[in-house]
Amino acid sequence: MKTQMYLPAVAFMMMTASAMAQTKIKDGSISSTPQPSGNAVLELESNNKGLLLPRVALTALNTAAPLTAHVAGMTVYNTASTADVTPGYYYNNGSQWVRINQPEPWKVQNSSADATANNQDIYQMGKVAINKNTPSDQQLEVVGDVKAHYTNGAYNGGIQTNFTDFGVPMNILYVADNPSLAAATKSSVISLYDGIANLQSNNGLGGGNIAAISSATGGTAGIVSNNSTQTISAEIWTQSNGTSGNVTLSHNKSTGERAAMAIEKLSGITFDFKKTDGTIEGVYTFPRTAGLSNQVLSVQTNAGGTNGTSTLQWKNVNEVIGVLPVYLTDTEADNALPSGALYKISGSRIVRQRP
């Protein structure tokens, strides 16, 4: 059974017993209307009036008051601004109140209008967190991977966390001539990963690196420049473990050829030369101490050392050149050492060789 009635009949309807019917309530502002919808228990009809739901003052989303209990499907208009509720329509899901048509927090830039499309320029005045629901101290906080990328002509730039194209997870800031760093021929990259910070730049003709490496036993830092094929390099490396350390300067070829100088506080300065096949050509170390008066540096091959490895030591002049002949001129001679003769220094004595 379908029933149509005008508004004055509502009071009568409220006093009658329940009936198995669809009901339409109308105010007469629309004529020649169809019967009530068969899918609606109650249909309202007017072209100049609306439905006014009960106006109540809610106290909180999780509190049923002013109702005596949460009732799923209950709908009201809240008039209060308190706790976590503000004026507006709410429905009850059986355990709490839920606002209908939540206010849009994102606004269209340069206005206070709500954002309604995904191609609008938008803003938000509060702090934004992604993948976390606890308060953030930052305007934007992301828990998880982040990638930002841009293209400007032939160059690409960006920032990415958990970048793994080079085999280990790292965080990078980069500019390159290819969106894929592994395929780029020109690039500048700052990379940070476990115990290593690296700045690398390569223009296709050659490149350079500045690296800092830390470990449980100490730290290492280096500057490296190389040619385009990375077969020739010039390097400076420093190492320290807190009690000892060294600085090494070297020029290297990929074949093994090398010229290097190492500075170490305990042993001094060591020069290291290797041939084109990588075998030792010569290694010798300067002492740390200064020589005394009338001393010179003398080469001493290390006992049991690698072939070509020597140490420079301070020696007295007479120990080094005592067997070398000397010739005294008239101005250098005296009565004890006549001029025009050849002498040699032997220990603390000068010995005449021949007239």
Structure notes:
The protein is mainly beta and 355 residues long. Among the domains are: 2-45, no CATH class; 145-222, no CATH class; 244-317, no CATH class; 322-354, no CATH class. The protein is built from two helices and 28 strands. It has helices at residues 10-15, 317-321; strands spanning 2-6, 22-26, 42-45, 55-56, 75-78, 88-92, 97-99, 107-108, 122-123, 128-130, 140-142, 147-152, 155-163, 170-176, 187-193, 196-202, 206-214, 219-227, 232-240, 245-253, 258-264, 268-274, 280-286, 295-301, 309-316, 325-327, 342-346, 349-354. β24 and β25 (309-316) form a beta hairpin. It is elongated, with a radius of gyration of 46 Å. It starts with a strand and ends with a strand.
Annotation keywords:
single chain, 355 residues, four-stranded mixed β-sheet, elongated, 45% strand
Give the helix proportion (percent range): under 10%
Principal-axes shape call = elongated
The unreliable regions are 7-18, 323-335
**Content of β-strand:** over 45%
Please state the average pLDDT score: 84
Largest sheet: 14 strands, mixed
Structural class: mainly beta
Give the beta-strand count.
28
Question: What order do the strands of the largest sheet run in, or round the barrel if closed?
Answer: 12-13-14-15-16-17-18-19-20-21-22-23-25-24
Distance between the termini: 154 Å
Count of helix runs:
2
- What's the assembly state of these chains? single chain
What is the string of helix and strand elements? Answer: EHEEEEEEEEEEEEEEEEEEEEEEEEHEEE
Radius of gyration of CA atoms, rounded to a whole number: 46 Å
